[in-house]
Amino acid sequence: MKRLLSIELQKIWKNKASRVLTLTYFILLTFIALIASIKFDLGIFKLHLAEMGIFNFPFIWHFNTYIAAILKLFLAIVIVSMMANEYSYGTLKQNLIDGMSKKEFIMSKFLTIILFAAVSTVFVFIMSLILGFSFSSYTEIGIVFSDLEYILAYFIKLIGFFSFCLFLGILVKRSAFALGFLLVWNIIEGIAKGILTFKIFPDSDKASYITQFFPLESMSNLIVEPFSRLSIIKSIGNQIGIENGKDYGVHFSSIIIVLCWTGIFTFLSYRLLKNRDL
């Protein structure tokens, strides 16, 4: 296992584009801290984002994981390119000639996915602790470490999304086309969700029940948007008569669905590679 992971990391680090994208991703994650310095001063309207409570415990776990998940596309490009380069540079065939089985090859890719997700999760966890203790109004241990399920959801979300990207990379063989397919699939899910919600089941929850099983939608459901949880947003909503009944929790069912898709994408990646004439 250690040998397989070492081989993949060497491939990524020796590729300049992958190296730059990986470093860029983690650099951008640190920019979340810059949100604390954003201030708007327009006469009587003054807004300091840090004072809105976005870095308060335990809300910070929700906010930071949601923002960090948006940046996952950078690592997705690395995952897709990692697979595309295997075909372009002939390293896949060479690995198989050198004695690596196709099962070990897929395992090496999946281990890399888990490593990327784990490092990113630990990075976000540490950064959130630092920002929280710097700006949060609540620093009691019981409050600090509540809502940590968002960290778990973030980890599961990354693994599921990267597994999908790995499958697309094997399916399409070209990183640009694979990313294009990812965009098209996202649009297809959006259209299907719109039709189910507004046309077929406009007056029931059946649409949301069905769409929760869509691959990208299931990953999105792990961490819903956190902004409407802020007191200032709730206050504005109450003033204009809008009630917010959104469920912000991380549900076990959502985790299971994403894990199932992770298994499906990994299995399909293996089957596709196994049956393909290299």
How would you concisely characterize the structure shown here?
This protein is mainly alpha-helical. The protein has helices at 2-14, 16-30, 59-70, 73-88, 91-97, 102-135, 141-144, 149-172, 175-200, 206-211, 215-222, 231-239, 252-275; strands at residues 39-42, 45-48. A two-stranded antiparallel sheet has the order 1-2.
Question: Can you walk through the features of this model?
Answer:
Helices cover 71% and strands 3% of the residues. The mean pLDDT is 86. The longest helix has 34 residues, at 102-135. It is mainly alpha-helical. It is built from 13 helices and 2 strands; from the N terminus they run ααββααααααααααα. Helix 1 (2-14) crosses helix 6, helix 3 (59-70) packs across helix 6 (102-135) and helix 8 crosses helix 9 (175-200).
List the helices and strands and how they pair.
Blueprint: H1 2-14, H2 16-30, E1 39-42, E2 45-48, H3 59-70, H4 73-88, H5 91-97, H6 102-135, H7 141-144, H8 149-172, H9 175-200, H10 206-211, H11 215-222, H12 231-239, H13 252-275
Antiparallel strand pairs: 1-2
